[in-house]
TrEMBL record:
<dbReference type="GO" id="GO:0050661">
    <property type="term" value="F:NADP binding"/>
</dbReference>
<comment type="pathway">
    <text>Carbohydrate degradation; pentose phosphate pathway; D-ribulose 5-phosphate from D-glucose 6-phosphate (oxidative stage): step 1/3.</text>
</comment>
<dbReference type="InterPro" id="IPR001282">
    <property type="entry name" value="G6P_DH"/>
</dbReference>
<dbReference type="Pfam" id="PF00479">
    <property type="entry name" value="G6PD_N"/>
</dbReference>
<dbReference type="InterPro" id="IPR019796">
    <property type="entry name" value="G6P_DH_AS"/>
</dbReference>
<feature type="domain" description="Glucose-6-phosphate dehydrogenase NAD-binding">
    <location>
        <begin position="37"/>
        <end position="215"/>
    </location>
</feature>
<dbReference type="GO" id="GO:0009570">
    <property type="term" value="C:chloroplast stroma"/>
</dbReference>
<dbReference type="InterPro" id="IPR022675">
    <property type="entry name" value="G6P_DH_C"/>
</dbReference>
<keyword id="KW-0560">Oxidoreductase</keyword>
<keyword id="KW-0313">Glucose metabolism</keyword>
<dbReference type="InterPro" id="IPR036291">
    <property type="entry name" value="NAD(P)-bd_dom_sf"/>
</dbReference>
<keyword id="KW-0521">NADP</keyword>
<comment type="similarity">
    <text>Belongs to the glucose-6-phosphate dehydrogenase family.</text>
</comment>
<dbReference type="GO" id="GO:0004345">
    <property type="term" value="F:glucose-6-phosphate dehydrogenase activity"/>
</dbReference>
<protein>
    <recommendedName>
        <fullName>Glucose-6-phosphate 1-dehydrogenase</fullName>
        <ecNumber>1.1.1.49</ecNumber>
    </recommendedName>
</protein>
<dbReference type="GO" id="GO:0006006">
    <property type="term" value="P:glucose metabolic process"/>
</dbReference>
<dbReference type="GO" id="GO:0009051">
    <property type="term" value="P:pentose-phosphate shunt, oxidative branch"/>
</dbReference>
């Protein structure tokens, strides 16, 4: 890891040497890290956070002295928490050698405290238990807010109440949603900052922890063949596509007050766009990277309603199987206009990207599952092959695809000659398929992000000015859609989504890849 060094983090000196055993080698410091998962009984904690913590432990990335606490209102003993964690272990480690033994050891470090989210008293009980485990060592504390956003501030108030330590650090990972528009997001930030400094707030966007999103900057800035082409001069359009082949399944209550634009576009897809389009940062330092992301976000035009298409999935039956409508979810009102699909065209008004459409498409209950970036290049200038292969070449310009998931890959579509005596052109892929090239499994995004938060690495977390700039792009259109009660185009569950998305792309002379 190139970020390995000795750094001052939150006032305390921490030794970073990111190798699996680095924490045990820095024994002389005698620090301890405790991770408290607030909302430990919830879906995200079970599905992602505990499995990621276990994977880090299995790979020896957690410090020698670490403790994990679950906190929630549900009544549970330590044993019941351990039971829950071991039963819901869905991590990539679960079929590995010695998984059972390591799991036993890991579980012995896990504890539970039941309490209310607004109760200082209950958090004091947690504090007492934490102190028992921290005795004699420099205490570092990480709180992961895996709870609904309306209780973020209460929890931060209680968790930080009287708990500050002069030597160790306290950090808080905040899950999305960070507000639902510019105003509520600023309010949330201001409220959190009554108790925390910006440096202590780790706003998570798990897409930033995905391997191929991490790789974007390596691809761009360490390969001579890409960076010179990375501009309006050579790129016709960029597409950021997210699709899921399942509906809101159990999250309808949350989803209905947010919708797909807030759930996916304003954060996951926009973060990818920022990394894709930013200028070269001065260094790999977190602040230098985040400065460039903010700059590019601020160069973007706020999205206009004419450049958005919204859709909502409807139920149907096929082959004896029936698929539900979005509004069949008991937590969604029958007359909900919340989009489960959206397509949008965004523009960056700077010298590099002037006039290049950045098209986003995100939807639930579609025909496929995946996330990818498609970069469509311009036509080759000149007439050499176009004289004979005009239409063919018009259709088949170069395209670079970065498939974030599943089956991570980077491939470049090129034109080549079909072997033989004739002259026919063919389209082929120069393909880097991760599973073929690397035998090592790709870690889950939450593993990377939890490790970074423990190490104080902020590069993959969202700074407050970045968040402001992101909301500024989407807030006006979200308000307009809601005020005008724009009716979403209905599309059948499992289809390719509303046709309106194709008209939007055609308006900019683009075909979705
Ligand atoms: P849950 O709805 O499962 O809530 C987590 C825990 O919070 C629950 O187990 C419950 O614990 C407590 N809780 C739930 N509702 C309330 C309420 N109204 N008032 C007080 N406490 C409540 O959420 P998730 O685990 O799905 O998500 C946690 C956070 O992560 C949310 O902010 C979500 O938006 C975000 N997120 C979730 C993803 C996912 O895939 N699930 C993906 C990305 C982000 P108890 O009753 O025991 O106190
Ligand atoms: C979450 C959204 O942030 O990302 C969910 O709230 C979505 O609606 C999820 O399903 C997708 O994440 P991933 O990692 O499964 O692609």
């Amino acid at each position: 890891n190139s970020f390995a060094d000795s750094s001052i983090v939150d006032g305390s000196v921490t030794n970073f040497e990111v190798s699996p055993d680095h924490f045990s080698s820095s024994e002389q410091i005698k620090t301890t890290v405790s991770v408290t998962v607030v909302g430990a009984s919830g879906d995200l904690a079970k599905k992602k956070i505990f499995p990621a913590l276990f994977a880090l432990y299995y790979e020896n990335f957690l410090p020698e002295h670490f403790t994990i606490f679950g906190y929630a209102r549900s009544k549970m003993s330590d044993e019941e928490l351990r039971n829950m964690i071991s039963k819901t272990l869905t991590c990539r480690i679960d079929k590995r050698e010695n998984c059972g033994d390591k799991m036993e050891k890991f579980l012995q470090r896990c504890f539970y405290q039941s309490g209310q989210y607004y109760s200082e008293e209950n958090f004091k009980e947690l504090d007492k238990k934490l102190k028992e485990r921290e005795a004699g060592k420099v205490p570092n504390r990480l709180f992961y807010l895996s709870i609904p956003p309306n209780i973020f501030v209460d929890v931060v108030r209680c968790a930080t109440y009287g708990a500050s330590s002069p030597t160790g650090w306290t950090r808080v990972i905040v899950e999305k949603p960070f507000g639902r528009d510019s105003e509520s997001s600023r309010e949330l930030t201001a409220s959190l900052k009554q108790y925390l400094t910006e440096d202590q707030i780790f706003r998570i966007d798990h897409y930033l922890g995905k391997e191929l999103v991490e790789n974007l900057s390596v691809l761009r800035f360490s390969n001579l063949v890409f960076e010179p082409l990375w501009s309006r001069q050579y790129i016709r359009n960029v597409q950021l596509i997210f699709s899921e082949d399942f509906g809101t399944e159990g999250r309808g209550g949350y989803f209905d007050s947010y919708g797909i634009i807030r759930d996916i576009m304003q954060n996951h897809l926009l973060q990818i766009l920022a990394l894709f389009a930013m200028e070269t940062p001065v260094s790999l330092d977190a602040e230098d990277i985040r400065n460039e992301k903010v700059k590019v976000l601020k160069s973007m035009r706020p999205l206009e309603i004419e450049d958005v298409v919204v859709g909502q999935y409807k139920g149907h039956s096929k082959g004896g199987k029936s698929y539900p409508s979005y509004t069949d979810d008991p937590k969604v009102p029958n007359n909900s206009l919340t989009p489960t699909f959206a397509a949008a065209a965004l523009f960056i008004d700077n010298a590099r990207w002037d006039g290049v459409p950045f098209l986003m498409k995100a939807g639930k209950a579609l025909h496929s599952n995946g996330a990818e970036i498609r970069v469509q290049f311009r036509h080759v200038p000149g007439n050499l092959y176009r004289r004979n292969f005009g239409t063919y070449l018009d259709k088949n310009t170069n395209e670079l695809v970065i498939r974030v998931q599943p089956n991570e890959a980077i491939y470049l579509k090129i034109n080549n000659k079909v072997p033989g005596l004739g002259m026919r052109l063919d389209r082929s892929n120069l393909n880097l398929l991760y599973s073929a090239k690397y035998s090592r499994e790709i870690p889950d995004a939450y593993e990377r992000l939890l490790l970074d938060a423990i190490e104080g690495e902020r590069r993959l977390f969202i700074r407050s000015d970045e968040l402001d700039a992101a909301w500024a792009l989407f807030t006006p259109v979200l308000k307009e859609l809601e005020e005008k009660h724009v009716f979403p185009e209905l599309y059948p569950f499992g289809s390719r989504g509303p046709v309106g998305a194709h008209y939007l792309a055609a308006k900019y002379n683009v075909r979705w890849g």
